[in-house]
Amino acid sequence: NAAYRVATTNWINKLFPKSDIHFLIDEPSIFVAYNKGIELTKDNKYVCFVHEDIDLVDINKQKLTSLLNKETTGFVGVAGSVKLDPSACWWIAYNGTPRENLSGRAGHQQLDGDKIKRWYNTYGEIGQVEILDGVILFCNRKLLDSIRWDESTFGGWDFYDISITWEANFKRFKNYTFKDIKLYHWGLGYPRDTWEDNRRKFIEWSTSKLNGTTKED
């Protein structure tokens, strides 16, 4: 959507004025697109993978970069789950109520007549999580030396966020939700048919990794 891309370019230039911007909308899948983005950002210290349909209003860059500079940090986002439910749906509780398991907060927006309606959802306590929703994902470029999207297993546009943040956690990096950010997302996240396909693939893929490799203590 051209209007989204203009809006995205505007907030990036305002908040991150020296950034390189790449819209990879013609790739066969988001897994391929984001891997290509990794190759295009070799000279950057920090990388942000983001949906084009958000408005990022404000962010504390000093706190964000401090978190990203920690050697143990994986990805930083706005919402996720402390422990991924066996169904692989991040918004479902795991050994507790959703509020106990979920983390973060995120803004949403939609047209209401000729006006834009905006609201914020608070999911749970901000902090370390196993996986993150992919509406926006920040990381230190060094993290991407050891992690890539598995484009040979997955296709389409779903479970890219669950798979990559799960793998970062599996490799003993720490993912976090971040509170000092204000954004509004146009999309409301309704699953597509391909979402179910990738959900099944993810369960098999992650189970195989767990059975084949043991984390070091």
Helix content percent band: 25-40%
Radius of gyration of CA atoms, rounded to a whole number: 17 Å
* Portion in strands: 25-35%
- Point out poorly predicted stretches: none
Output the helix-strand order: HHEEHEEHEEEEEHEEH
Report the major sheet.
6 strands, mixed
Instruction: Give the strand tally.
Output: 11
Number of helical regions: 6
- Mean residue pLDDT: 92
N-to-C CA distance: 46 Å
- Structural class category: alpha+beta
Overall geometry comes to globular
Structural features, described:
By secondary structure, the protein is an alpha+beta fold. 31% of the residues lie in helices and 27% in strands. The protein is built from 6 helices and 11 strands. The strands form 3 sheets. Strands 2, 4, 5, 6, 8 and 11 form a 6-stranded mixed β-sheet that branches. Strands 3-10-7 form a 3-stranded mixed β-sheet, sandwiched between helices. Strands 1-9 form a two-stranded antiparallel sheet. It is globular. The model has no long low-confidence stretch (mean pLDDT 92).
